[in-house]
Amino acid sequence: EVNISCSVGIALYPDGCEPNKLIARADAAMYAAKRSGGSKHCFYSPDMDAAAQANFEMVRELRHAIAHDQLELYYQPKVDTRSGKFTAAEALVRWRHPQRGWVLPGEFLPVLESMGLMRELGRQVFEMAARQQAAWCAAGHRLQLSVNLSPSEFADTNLLDTLQLCLARTACPPQALELEITESMLMGGDDRPMRTLQALRALGLSIALDDFGTGYSNLAYLQRFAFDTLKIDRSFVQAPEAERPLTAAILGLCRALGLRPVAEGVETSGQHQWLQGLGVQEFQGYLFSRPLPPQQFEALLPVPG
Ligand code: C2E
Ligand code: MG
Ligand code: MG
What we know:
Elements: E1 8-10, H1 22-35, E2 41-43, H2 48-67, E3 71-80, E4 85-97, E5 101-103, H3 105-114, H4 118-138, E6 144-148, H5 151-155, H6 159-170, E7 177-181, H7 192-202, E8 206-212, H8 219-224, E9 229-232, H9 234-237, H10 244-257, E10 260-263, H11 269-277, E11 282-283, H12 294-300
Parallel strand pairs: 1-2, 4-6, 6-7, 7-8, 8-9, 9-10, 10-11
Antiparallel strand pairs: 3-4, 3-11, 4-5
The structure holds ligand C2E and magnesium ion (2 copies).
């Protein structure tokens, strides 16, 4: 069962409006409808310009941030419970805002994505991660680092060239990197996503399916796209008792397809023990560590050798 909703923004012409402002006004009205809960319509009113202005301001600041290296990566360890050691990590972007302090990706990535600015940030993120990983490899650390890809990056026809260039520039071994994508990026009916994944694989990169269970969870995709890792979304990891059989079934599916499951968002030792009992070996979540700045993360790594 799929529930969809629709928010409508309405702007009137002429009503004191220049023709070239009409779409922007309808857009501002639509965002107002979404902000007030969605599934409704809103007529444009001048106070909505303030919200649009705030959005505009954020985009301006983000452009500045991208150009002036105000974006940083935090690293969240993934623990392998066979050895009890941190053997992998996920790179997560953070924005160090001069006035507001640290801003989380949930606040600014959707703005970048909707403004078509995500590719530049994505390139920067990948290059930062590759550079850091090259340094860790050179220091003798053996850990796999995963980097998230956004929908527009995945759809970008220059993606392969961009990544290849970053890998060459940073001298990072591609085998030490994994890309996390989400299911919605694979939909669309044509074979482009498949070809992109094959080409990424051919570069030597591993592929993880992120947030599994939150989208359409198309089982045919799991077979067809041959991922290396399946990240079980935290809604399944934190599932109430009654919904736990579903999580167990997903893990059975992983085993049958030869996928490596990683449990995301593990917060309690109860969740950890339950999933370990179901055969999960890799865990990521606040129970083990929050995402950390590089120096703090490094201090947790096993001594190389
Ligand atoms: P994600 O890829 O699923 O990343 C996991 C998110 O869950 C991170 O949030 C992480 O801090 C959070 N998390 C980890 N453990 C726990 C836990 O035990 N409990 C709870 N409640 N949360 C936990 P974060 O860093 O705010 O990132 C949110 C999302 O933004 C990410 O979800 C990813 O989709 C996106 N994102 C983050 N960094 C990047 C990036 O560099 N590029 C792209 N394209 N997307 C990114
Ligand atoms: Mg992820
Ligand atoms: Mg996730």
